[in-house]
Specification:
The protein is of the alpha/beta class and 222 residues long. 41% of the residues lie in helices and 15% in strands. The chain has 11 helices and 8 strands. A 5-stranded mixed sheet has the order 5-6-1-7-8. Helix 4 runs antiparallel to helix 6. The longest helix has 16 residues.
Length: 222
């Protein structure tokens, strides 16, 4: 039996959860997911780091992990909301509870990510893509926030797949799809490739995952 692994990733988790709380409690203001907004730090003091950002904030160049001061320079009209970790724990628990309805083998990877072994569940939930849409839609319709689902035969490829186009999407990345779907991507998109490694690879003329795959191992070791 072929192994089937899902990686479930909440889209802009902290920001989505804060946005849902505001909507459910009738707090006036825009849906934070639809405007330049971020979770983290203190706007007045201009300290702290960005923990999550909306897609519109990302368009301004705001990145997770940068300082609030840097983010505000890029996007002066950024709506900044302090974190509420108690809220995140409650939302995470509800998210993981739904996953356990579909598989007894759920690995919590972080507060907003999980791996699921869906091997052998076809008779219960249908083919993998159908099952993924069922899970994704139940989370959205029940809890009010969206997730991406990556599907493959191992955790690494499933996680890579879930990072494809967002939000609220299902993607596959089986071994036979690697050359078509993965090789054209920038090398920085490869899991565990950070800024330092990307810089070293670029000095070798390696800009895409495909170029890295085709590079002689001796060159990389050197």
């Amino acid at each position: 039996m072929d192994r089937v692994i899902f990686h479930i990733d909440v889209n802009s988790a902290y920001l989505s959860w804060e946005s849902m709380r505001r909507i459910q409690n009738g707090i006036p203001g825009p849906d934070l997911r639809t405007v330049p907004a971020a979770i983290g730090g203190d706007r007045e003091m201009r300290h702290g780091i960005i923990l999550a950002k909306s897609i519109p904030a990302k368009a301004y160049g705001v990145t997770t992990g940068e300082t609030v001061a840097q983010a505000l320079r890029k996007c002066p009209n950024l709506i900044l909301v302090p974190p509420d970790f108690a809220l995140y724990q409650r939302c995470s628990a509800a998210f993981h509870e739904i996953l356990h309805k579909y598989s007894p083998d759920v690995l919590k990877f972080s507060v907003d990510e999980a791996f699921m072994d869906m091997t052998g569940t076809r008779a219960l939930f249908g083919p993998p893509v159908q099952a993924a849409y069922r899970i994704k839609n139940e989370i959205r319709d029940t809890l009010g926030f969206t997730v991406n689902v990556g599907i493959s035969s191992n955790r690494l490829l499933a996680k890579m797949a879930s990072d494809f186009e967002k939000p609220d999407k299902v993607h596959t990345l089986f071994p036979e799809e690697i050359q078509e779907k993965m090789w054209p991507l920038p090398v920085r998109d490869l899991f565990f490739v950070g800024k330092s490694t990307e810089k070293k690879l670029r000095t070798l003329g390696i800009h895409t995952i495909g170029e890295l795959a085709r590079t002689d191992e001796a060159i990389l070791r050197g």
